[in-house]
Amino acid sequence: MSRFFRSGQDSESESDLSSSSSGSEFSDDEQQQQQQQRPTGASGANRFARAAFDSDSDSDADVKRVVKSPKEKHMEEVDKLSRGILKAIRANKWQVASEDFDKLGAAVPKLVKALKGESLPSVFIRCLAKLEDSTVAGGLDKEELAKLSASDARSFNKLKQRMRKHNKAYTKQIAEYRANPVESEEEEEEARAPSGVPSDSEEEQAVPSVKQRTSGKSAVVAAESGSESDDSYWGTGSEVSSSESDESDDERRGRVGFSRWLKKEPAKEEGGAKEEGGAKKARKDKTQRVAVAAATAAAGAEDDDGFATVGKGGKVVQKPVVTAETLNKNLAAISDARGRKSTNKKEMIQMLETLLGVAANPLQRCKVLMALISAQFDNSASGSYMPLDQWSRAQDTINELLSTLEENRQIAIYETADVHEDDSDVTYTNEPITLRGSVIAFIDRLDDEFTRSLQSIDPHTPNYIERMRDSVPLYVTIVRAQSYFERNNIKDSLCRVVLRRLEHLYYRTDQVNHHVEEAASRLSGSAASDVGGTAATIQRLCSFLYDNAEPLLRIRAMLMHIFNHALHKRYYVARDLLLMSHIQENAQHLDVNTQVLYNRALAQLGLAAFRIGKIQESFEHTVELMSSGHQRELLAQGIGQQRTQQLSSAEEHLQRQRQLPFHVNINLELLECVFLTSSMLIEIPAVASANTNPEAPRAPISRVFRRMLDFNERQVFLGPPENTRDHIMASAKALASGDWVASRDYIQAIKIWSLLPDCQEIKDMLANKIQVEALRTYLFTYSTQFEAVGLEDLSAMFGLTRNRVYALLARMVYQGELQASLDEVSGVLAFSRANFEVSSRLQQTALTLSNKANAFADINERVFELKINGGQPPGDRQQGGEQGGRGQGQGQGDRDGRPNYQRGSGGGGGGRDGQRNQNYSRKDGGSNRTPMRGSRRGGNNQQRRGGRQ
Amino acid sequence: MAQYDLTTRMIPSLDRQLVFPLLEFLSTKDVYKAEDVLKAKVELLSSTGMVDYTGELYKQLHDVDDLPADFDKKREEVIEKLLESEMKTKHIREVIENPEVAGSLRQDKLQNMKLLHENYQCTPEMVLELYNYGQLQYSCGNYGGSADMLLHFSILSTDAELTLSAMWGKLASEILLGNWEVAFEDILKLRETIDKTHFKSPTEQLQQRMWLLHWSMFVFFNHPKGRDGIVDTFMLPQYISTIQNACPWILRYLVAAVVTNRRKRSMMQQLVKIIEQVAYMYRDPVTEFIEALYIDFDFDRAAEKLEQCEDVLDKDFFLTPAVDDFVENARFYFAEVYCRIHKRIDMAGLTGRLNMRQEEGEKWIVKLIRDTRMDAKVDFKENTIIMNPSYNPVYQQVIERTRALVFRSQVLNGAIDKRGTSAGKKDDQKQDQRRGRGQQRQGKRHTDNAVAVQ
Predict the structure, then answer these.
(1) Which of A918, B9, B112, B235 has the fewest Cβ atoms nearer than 10 Å?
(2) Burial of residue A547, with CB atoms counted within 10 A of its CB: 0-12 exposed, 13-18 middle, 19 or more buried
(3) Cβ contacts (< 8 Å) between A850 and chain B: which residues?
């Protein structure tokens, strides 16, 4: 009821403002009343009557009471209610709308009776249509719904359900109305005029409503932006009142102050606050008065927002008188109330904002700002991310705190400082002082909320890009915080903030970072803080963390550094950093997020190795990740399908929280492409060699690739390649048959290479590799068919120079991959006779049998070991010892499943990496054979487990 | 050739006085300007106690006859200090040099200290003075004295850090004295100590190892058994990783050591891997030779690098004496790889690549074939070498593979038997059965052995 009154009054006074002459004094009265006494239902009704009367007298000179027929009376009621509903819809006051709708439901049957077959008033139909539009047809999306207060939301849902049923009876009319909405309105006016039933309220309300619909842009805005525009409306109202009551030169200042406060523009606010602070002693009483007014206004606004509370409990929010002197007390009260169930968070924020307005000096400002920031963060609903406007408000407040701290260097905020419980803040005279608080916590929260919002926004919408724009101001805030910590030498926080800063930098290339830094320095208004480019910045930040931070942060910094080096193709630097840091040895003991970072660094390292043509290394770095089948989870870039086990909702929630925002992601398709291409270059010659040479290892090097190839070969019908994978498979087949041109063309046709910065270079490199591997494959495959091959022919066939062919053959011969030898005089490669003998079926079988017998003996030994160890599988140490005893690693390779691959190919990087790594770890007495591979596997396993738990 | 000179890189890891021979060597080789080297020498010695010698060099450098006044002053100071130290250590030196005392000393350092303290009134301070005196003597170039003092100190002192330091001092003294035999032992001792000691940070340990690598080269390239020693030490995993991490230039010496030491040929494969890994941070003609030969199989480049190697080695303090040896052995490796890959070799081409004259080359090759018992023949008419690459026939392969099986089964069998008897003693019946089976096996084993021998 009162609600209705209020909204009615809104439009009324709006009309006052627009036609300022007619009812300014009345509006004034209204406002005064509004401020002095809380409008309760009864008084509201009274006043409505009076208002109606007033406006009546305004519009019509001859006051004349007309006796109304029941029909008219009902008509009037329905009309009034309908209009009320319309207005409520516009203002998003669903509770009111719902209440009115109930009444309407009761009034309409009466009217129908009275009308006796006449058509229903068009306003009613319009109202129904409007209701239907805004409820059933989904006028509000979820986000907007979330903004509504609880009671409004409930009413909204109730209305929605009822509308469906209710409107069936009026389908025809509504459809008619829909056909020509404007006309009906005009008709309504026309129809009313000749009907000769002048209804006061009708006249008076129809005018503004029409105005609103047709011309009033402002009205639409007001309706849409809901409570905020309400605020501003109230603000101007109170402003007028205060200025009138003061009638002093204070007036202007006060107005500035309020509008400032209402619009929430911190820059102006700051200025105003300073002004107030400076002028404080001189005009103390006046300030006080303004403060009272402000508080009242605030209370009014609060009331407006938290209307439900007032209505229900009849509780009236107190109007504390806020001044600089009592600021501490108020602050304490607020911080006491924080976290309690009954506390209205919005009220708290408004209260604090008021307090900020009266803060007399930097010290008080700092205190209020800190409380305000916490309150702003408290206000966001848990579960989803912080609404964007709230976020930017919080960011502004943090910036303000930082600039206050920058301007007042004597104030420092420490986490460990004593609580400052002094009431003499007002007389604070710039002596050094420490406050208790945690700036880093604010920064952390701000950054986390930013990430969270990016996690939930769909990255393929403009919203995401919009959101990304905030990253630069955020970066600026972080840099400012860093300089604050540096100034006050707060080590712990400094490390954390530096890490945050790194997190914003490490995944981007220098170029992008350069732009970010530039934008940042432009934004912060200072000259570019970093000399020597962003690579140097990252280097500097990392070395700072290496020296100062605790181990976990150090590891994170190191991983980011590795990632960044790898991103810039500095493969060796990145790899050495990884190996020397021994991270891979304790990767499984790290927390999940760091493990994700570790996996990312490895993946990036694989890409870097690929880019400089280190195929073998690239394969080694990526194989664990890619063959796990969980690369999405391992890189925290989405939740893969869970075939085997179902995640509980809590687990899934945790996993979602871990997801990295889209722009940070490593392109999985590119990673797969790189992995498969390197697999192809390694696997195809190996397969060919295994087919002809019984010595060669048969176990697949890359199971994933083999599986795909087998699958591809089983297909009955194969179309031309479409996606990346198809291309690689087609290329692999061409390579296997020695057709290097086709193989190269397939590989080079893959579009995703263009994502790599040095695309052409990489294609050339791949072409070269394909030539070499095709040659090798060809020789492996057809060695049994040839007695000798001419070097010139090979050189011509594979487009390689003679010297290159020569070197390749020499290498293969030397390493025993090919049983052949070169004839220098006639320039041919002569295959040895032993080869032909081997090709005899019986002999091959005999060799295989002997191999199997060896494997059998191995298994026997292992079984026995298992037995004497009491069911425990033999540990690493024992393996090592036993291997030593048995001589040159007989069982070693078999256990790995790929013996010669590591031992035989001297050029292969697998052995090298392992070897190198072994060396590093030996230094600390580790005896693991290939710790890197082993522990990486361990790390991933752990991660996988972590991911599922 | 200055680009391949490693002196500047090695100086940080060497003692001042150890650098001196290096500079001395450089001044004979015209790698740098004579004046620069001289200046470096003066700089080097200015903080040591060898005032007289420094003075002489100073005169030479600045071409003057008189020395600045502070030289005299410094000289007096040094002498004064020496005398003072000598006085202080007189008592303890007498005590230690007494054979009776030396005989009664044991392993336990604390016990020794107690003994000395009780019987001969030696305090820990006096022991410390020994260290100082040794250091002072070393600084003045009296290496014999310093070696003795530091030896005494390292025996008596209980301070691990100072003991280590004394050991370094002693090693330096021995090196400068040229006592290679003693120095060799010292190095092994130091290596052990460094591996055992628990250092505060890995960096410190790394640095100690780096020093050891550099210092030990003085010994290894002079001691008769040094070339084995250097390979054995440097190829230890911890030292390989030190080389990779901190001082890749040591690889040159390692390569030289492996190449000149044909008995360590098996190390080559490992060495090639290391060279390949480190190639991105360090390369010089010596490593490039190996790279060309074993990784790229580019024989022309390898031959070219071999020529460069001669020059580089000649200008290297440690490797000068080994130049001829190196070239000779490098050729051998070259020929070995070449022969292994080829079936028919043009002799002129090979000798040309090996940088030899035709006739000389032919002789060399024939000698090589004879020495290594290669299955090769020279065809003088065609002027080629024909290799007979021998591949194992399949029969041989099958025999080789299955041979080990017998032995392995025996071992397993024996192990099961042993376990069976120890576990099942209580069960008489089973034991009897086993004994019976064991006897059967006994017989079988004899026959197996016979087969294996055949």
Answers:
(1) B9
(2) exposed
(3) 397-398, 401-402
